[in-house]
Amino acid sequence: xxxxxxxxxxxxxxxxxxxxxxxxxxxxxxxxxTVWREDDSAELHIQDTLKVGGGINDVAAVExxxxxxxxxxxxxxxxxxxxxxxxxxxxxxxxxxxxxPRILFAGGDATGMEIQRALSEAVHVHPNIETxxxxxxxxxxxxxxxxxxxxxxxxxxxxxRLDCHQLVLATGGAGRMFYYTAxxxxxxxxxxxxxxxxxxxxxxxxxxxxxxxxxxxxxxxNYLISxxxxxxxxxxxxxxxxxxxxxxxxxxELASRDVVSRAIHQxxxxxGRVYLDATKLKHESVEYRFPxxxxxxxxxxxxxxxxxxxxxxxxxxxxGGLATDLWGRAHIPGLYAAGEVTRTGVHGSGRLASNxxxxxxxxxxxxxxxxxADQKQVPQIWEGPLVPSPALETPxxxxxxxxxxxxxxxxxxxxxxxxxxxxxxxLITRLDQALGPVPDGLDYGQFELWHMIYxxxxxxxxxxxxxxxxGSHYREDFPTSLPAQQGSIRHRLGFTPELVR
Length: 501
Ligand SMILES: Cc1cc2nc3c(=O)[nH]c(=O)nc-3n(C[C@H](O)[C@H](O)[C@H](O)COP(=O)(O)OP(=O)(O)OC[C@H]3O[C@@H](n4cnc5c(N)ncnc54)[C@H](O)[C@@H]3O)c2cc1C
Prior knowledge:
Helices cover about 30% and strands about 15% of the residues. By secondary structure, the protein is an alpha+beta fold. Among the domains are: about 215-315, Flavocytochrome C3, Chain A, domain 1 (Alpha-Beta Complex), CATH 3.90.700.10; about 390-500, Up-down Bundle (Methane Monooxygenase Hydroxylase, Chain G, domain 1). Strand 9 and strand 10 form a beta hairpin. Flavin-adenine dinucleotide binds near residues 186 and 317.
């Protein structure tokens, strides 16, 4: 979106780490939230977004998201995205914690694939956009206090440098830090760590959303079962075939994701397994409304028209990330960001379903405007020079390498749905031992893993500091929310992380 908007005014180079379509965007199922019906309003969408945000959303950012959502979705439509329609207009779905149906979707449950298709096609034919696929970022150069260039790994030529004074990160989230996730392999989050090392701020890292319902069938991947299936009326049952959500929240299956995920986690501990039962829905609505989910489950031996789907929570969405202003500017002049990599303040401690594709569209357009405006005038968000250094505040004297799988299992065990002080401390100690000098990047796997561990360490540190529970962050040793902690934890290189209210 950003590349397309910016390319109207000059040349853009677009780097992707893998193939263009290897994104979390292309996996999105449920849809994109927007105020579309006559009886809906931006105010109602704002209210719903704030309700699940746990009191720490940036209200101004939420206003931007909800008020500018419709024009952004109209822009997607004008770029060729085909949302599903009835004879009288677009079909709208209901998802958890939304007051009324406001989710546009495509191909039943293939919304992201359709958005990715339309945007990729538009990018490919644009004369002002050069794409370089399979070329991961290695570092952001900003020694003089503003972006001067990047280093990246060219697929044939090895490490290369590019002069660049305006860099937009649209590098997505980091669900692959956790062992159980439906995120794409590219969602490893290393550009967030690179941005911190270059002088950016990382905020709200402890807030990681876990999606309640991914397929939990041994031998098959954690395929996501969209919230929209619950929106259509599917219910959650335990091993004894009892519906249990009423015991956890009045909104039952459509309570916020944090509530539903923890309820499923508890029921799994109590009764063994949890199932999503869609058998009472009309066969038509299951098979045609959710064709990909239907076929995926069918190939895993489950006919969702006739039998319940075994499900469990997975790591899904990173609410925190690189801090930006309302125009996508980070704290280093010349560095911008849009999408899941950012912390715009839209989501607070819990994201409302289908608000992330919307955030990408709305802020993806705004950041292009900021890039163009800043070519005439230097941006103001910069708060003074920092000394970039990859050193951790607490380097460990013991050095022990950590395999990727072991790292992801540790993150799941100690930093996922239910956290406590001793688990987080164990995790931090182990991650510190694994963080030697930054690898050179020639082996991208090792380079990526170092940055994942670094980011995981920052997340664990924030989770340890937040001695309360709020939104997606749940501490069993501090199960309630504390007014004194109604703020955001900010990481800044060379400074102890601090809570900013
Ligand atoms: C299974 C699933 C279902 C979802 N369903 C929905 C939904 O229904 N509605 C909704 O709103 N949200 C949904 N989400 C969340 C949403 O899809 C994502 O938050 C959003 O698409 C992220 O978009 P993005 O552009 O920020 O990142 P991505 O779409 O992940 O794109 C990131 C890009 O950055 C590139 N990149 C990453 N690292 C580097 C690097 N080091 N160097 C160079 N390039 C790099 C990648 O190659 C990729 O091209 C879902 C997520 C998942 C995983």
